[in-house]
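To whoever is on call:

I kicked off a structure prediction for a single chain this morning and the downstream step that reads the tokens threw a length-mismatch warning. I double-checked the sequence; it's 308 residues and nothing unusual in it as far as I can see. Pasting both halves so you can look.
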Amino acid sequence: MKLGLDVGGTKTDAVAVDADGTIAGRIRIPTGWGADAVITTILDAITALRQEASFEESAIESVGVGIPGLVDAHAGRVLHAVNLGVESLDLVDAARRVIDVPFAVENDVKAAALGAGALRGDARSMAYLNLGTGVAAGIVVDGKLWRGSRGIAGEVGHISVDPNGRVCGCGQRGCVETFCGGGAVARAWGRPGALPILDIFDAAEQGDVEAVALRQGIARGAAAAVRILVLSADVETVVFGGGLTSLGDRLRDDIVAELRQEAETSAFMRSLRLDERIELLPAGSPAAALGAALVGAAHREQGAMING
């Protein structure tokens, strides 16, 4: 079994993948807060997967973990995962003290990009664009992650597209994330509610002027991210994932309309057919956890090659 865990700010999604590449088990459990609790969550998820899919610890070939924050995949270390209360965590070393199997860790968006590519079964280049609390992308070329020279390829959330826009958490103004990042948009909305982005879409349809502007901004920011990814990395497809995609066709239709409107005055942009090159992951997709499993399996294979 190859295990993959997507450790999120509130929940951890985990899958067990058998020798045929089939997901043999899937569980979701709450994620703990703080470094020690994150390790406990990972170990508890492994135990729950074993119970769900009925296999022994000895059957585990590898474990891959996708996690937010800055990830040093080589060292197995996570830094500045603020949504988890983690400043620095030697995740691989801590986990292997309890379960001595090959572990690997990767940034959650990059892992999800690999998983989305595997689920699509398309060898062409693609970008996975995560619209969640923040905005980031992972780029996959020939089935492999493209990291860039310093590992930040795909960090489109902090590209400024409006120098007069709202201040971003990174200190710039008008970043893509200030338009279509769930956290930034919810703060701009400023009204109570468990699902602020859904509330914005609903209020916009009722004619609320502020909601209309924020909803249009979400489409504008997402469309800008698509343009950036295609024009800079020349990916064939941009696949959307993350919490905002639970809006389904309401979100997709807005983004398509924005891309078409922006292309009206440019023959060059029309030639790129960006409106035809976007997809949304289905609700409940296991892409992130599956991608983490692929990361763990690849790390194990590389280690086997190095060690003969």
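Update from on-call: the warning came from a stale cache, not from the record. Cleared it. Sanity check on the structure: The mean pLDDT is 94.
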